[in-house]
């Protein structure tokens, strides 16, 4: 079977999601999931009928939440499908390219490689900001530039002035894709207000993080109508199952939004608590984070990650040397993880 696969697929290394990596334990802080297990009650009727490609009630609800018009919203199976749709819709395999800026989310490169689209790598600066001169030098044949803010796994925000400069630089050349999967934890940093000024801006969103709906697989692409219409040409006929649309609408209702606001505030408080406590530990660096996770540098990150894994505290190792990404869980989970780290580091230095 391997020989029958396309050459790009034969050479492809799949994205190692948290679930593919596995693990076993009682503290799961590796996938940037919410610790809140919210309950929804569904009527679950009309399942004998196909769903709408773009359920109007869901589109209207998210448009109202995001502050855009319904014509500027496309719903997808998670933000990952939005990434894939953008590559398939705008990049010719074997001809065009994308730009992405590591360390960042791995699915931009995976989606492009799967389809046979060149990947141009322009690393972030030492401050984890855009290297605008290097991006400008790399724009030949580029159709999409992916930017993640808050960036995963570093947690920092990309400078707004640099985003605007990038948008100016790429006019009539390429689409700038802002991945805002974690923007609900810092909504003031969104670029949604730039949509009306830049027709080549696309914004990725998800309900997996702040809305505690990772298992629902409901995402959105925000863009101007002309760009949305291109994506509608390549999206699957029935991408949104009826129960998914129904639950997402409940989460976007008045009561659902109030609950999400409370839970977001709790997670932001837990992030502040965990960061402050970790900063008190010698030889530990805590990087500023604006999502529901923190990137931490330890004296030996790989050893700390493995020790936590063996103790049933599942964190996420990082491509950045000696760094471990820790999702923000409940206060109890944060305390248990913090106490483990303190004990482990004390044993190493004893």
UniProtKB/TrEMBL annotation:
Its cofactor is pyridoxal 5'-phosphate. One of its GO terms (biological process) is L-histidine biosynthetic process. Its EC number is 2.6.1.9. Keywords: Amino-acid biosynthesis, Aminotransferase, Histidine biosynthesis, Pyridoxal phosphate, Transferase. Pfam families: Aminotran_1_2 (PF00155). PROSITE patterns: AA_TRANSFER_CLASS_2 (PS00599). The modification N6-(pyridoxal phosphate)lysine is found at residue 209. It comes from the Bacteria. Residues 32-340 form the Aminotransferase class I/classII large domain. CDD domains: AAT_like. Pathway: Amino-acid biosynthesis; L-histidine biosynthesis; L-histidine from 5-phospho-alpha-D-ribose 1-diphosphate: step 7/9. It catalyses: L-histidinol phosphate + 2-oxoglutarate = 3-(imidazol-4-yl)-2-oxopropyl phosphate + L-glutamate. It is an enzyme of class 2 (transferase). Belongs to the class-II pyridoxal-phosphate-dependent aminotransferase family. Histidinol-phosphate aminotransferase subfamily. HAMAP family: HisC_aminotrans_2. Homodimer. This is Histidinol-phosphate aminotransferase. It comes from Vibrio ezurae NBRC 102218.
